[in-house]
């Protein structure tokens, strides 16, 4: 097998290079073949229990029933989270990653969010609504150059938010000259199963004090007042309605909305899905990267693309190393990842999967090369944005959102 090194990335990043690098890994339930998994859940027509996404997929030449265990967007989010954690940990290279950070102050605590965590990356509404030294971000020349970047010259975007180029971004709210950058890295986890009718699973809560805690109007109001700073607005409304129901005649109501009392076993929530095969796949599109230029000439542009590819592979190695999805969906690798590079005309070059150490070395080498031939500089945060206080003041959590 061939090692993934800088020379290979530079070749693939130059005209005539292969289209895609692909990584495919067989997974299995950590509990064994008999264990079910909890696929990704999606909201459907107001059903708060959610639903699983079933599709027909080809497997070994035949059409089979499949369920989305982890979606394409979720897999990219996990890659971003892995990079963000490395930044927080002070990784010697990734801590230097250019990024845009918005800062809020909430209840006396400073919160920071960057293009690694905001859903629309460098074009996110939290960034656009903020200010720098009292000036709206959208009026700052350095941010305008990022928004004006095009595939003909994306240097400003590379220098400010390289993750927006590998994970995709869309400046959708702009009246014109909208930046639309498709993700160069895509991936998903798919499970092959028997049917599209999930079972339901039981749930219960035992309260050692009592299976029921009945409260009157006065007690409900006092409990709500004591916890007001911690209760969501929706939950406060529920308590107020319950107190109104209990008002008059010495009535009492259940305190379950405040987490008091038990819940009898019920079969209501979506159950797990039994899968006979689970496959994780990722594709890094060099064809996508080759559509982008950076004003650095043929050699310099290839170096910039190779740097983006190394960053994407580093994020992928970090994400794959943490098979953490959600409750009741613990997976493990059933075999080593199968990695190859398309060499055109049906030829595939078998590659050795990157370890974290290999991925870090590859990224450091790609950065040093891009610094030398394209003048790339990674110095950490490029723009520090002050978040609009009206936004954080209006932020609420939906206490009833399904898990």
UniProtKB/TrEMBL annotation:
* InterPro entries, sorted: CRISPR-assoc_prot_Csb1/Cas7u
Q: Which domain of life is it from?
A: Bacteria
Write down the Pfam families for this protein, in alphabetical order: Cas_GSU0053
Q: What is this protein called?
A: Type I-U CRISPR-associated protein Cas7
Originating species? Dactylosporangium maewongense
């Amino acid at each position: 097998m061939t090692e993934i090194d800088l020379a290979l990335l530079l070749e693939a990043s130059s005209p005539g290079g292969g289209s895609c690098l692909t990584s495919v890994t067989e997974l299995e339930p950590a509990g064994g073949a008999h264990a079910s998994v909890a696929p990704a859940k999606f909201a459907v027509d107001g059903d708060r229990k959610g639903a699983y996404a079933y599709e027909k997929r080809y497997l070994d030449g035949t059409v089979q029933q499949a369920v989305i265990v982890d979606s394409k967007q979720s897999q990219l989010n996990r890659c971003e989270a892995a990079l963000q954690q490395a930044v927080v940990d002070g990784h010697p290279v990734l801590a230097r990653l250019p990024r845009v950070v918005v800062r809020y102050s909430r209840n006396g605590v400073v919160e920071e969010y960057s293009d690694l965590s905001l859903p629309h990356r460098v074009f996110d509404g939290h960034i656009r609504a903020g200010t720098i030294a009292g000036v709206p971000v959208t009026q700052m020349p350095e941010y305008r150059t990022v928004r004006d970047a095009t595939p003909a010259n994306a240097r400003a975007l590379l220098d400010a938010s390289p993750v927006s180029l590998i994970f995709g971004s869309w400046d959708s709210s702009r009246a014109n000259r909208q930046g639309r950058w498709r993700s160069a890295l895509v991936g998903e986890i798919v499970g092959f199963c028997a049917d599209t009718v999930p079972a339901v699973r039981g749930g219960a809560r035992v309260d050692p004090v009592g299976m029921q805690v009945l409260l009157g109007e006065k007690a409900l109001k006092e409990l709500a007042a004591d916890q007001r700073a911690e209760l969501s607005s929706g939950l406060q409304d529920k308590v107020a309605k319950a107190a109104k129901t209990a008002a008059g005649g010495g009535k009492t109501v259940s305190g379950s909305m405040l987490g008091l009392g038990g819940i009898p076993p019920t079969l209501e929530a979506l159950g797990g899905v039994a899968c006979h095969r689970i496959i994780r796949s990722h594709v890094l599109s060099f064809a996508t990267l080759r559509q982008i230029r950076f004003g650095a000439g043929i050699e310099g542009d290839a170096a910039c693309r190779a740097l983006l590819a190394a960053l994407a592979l580093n994020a992928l190695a970090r994400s794959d190393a943490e098979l953490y999805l959600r409750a009741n969906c613990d997976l493990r690798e059933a075999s080593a990842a199968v990695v190859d590079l398309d060499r055109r005309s049906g030829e595939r070059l078998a590659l050795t999967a990157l370890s974290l150490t290999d991925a870090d070395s590859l990224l450091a080498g790609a950065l040093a090369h891009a610094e030398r031939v394209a003048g790339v500089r990674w110095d950490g945060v490029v723009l520090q944005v002050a978040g609009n206080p009206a936004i954080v003041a209006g932020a609420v959590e939906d206490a009833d959102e399904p898990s």
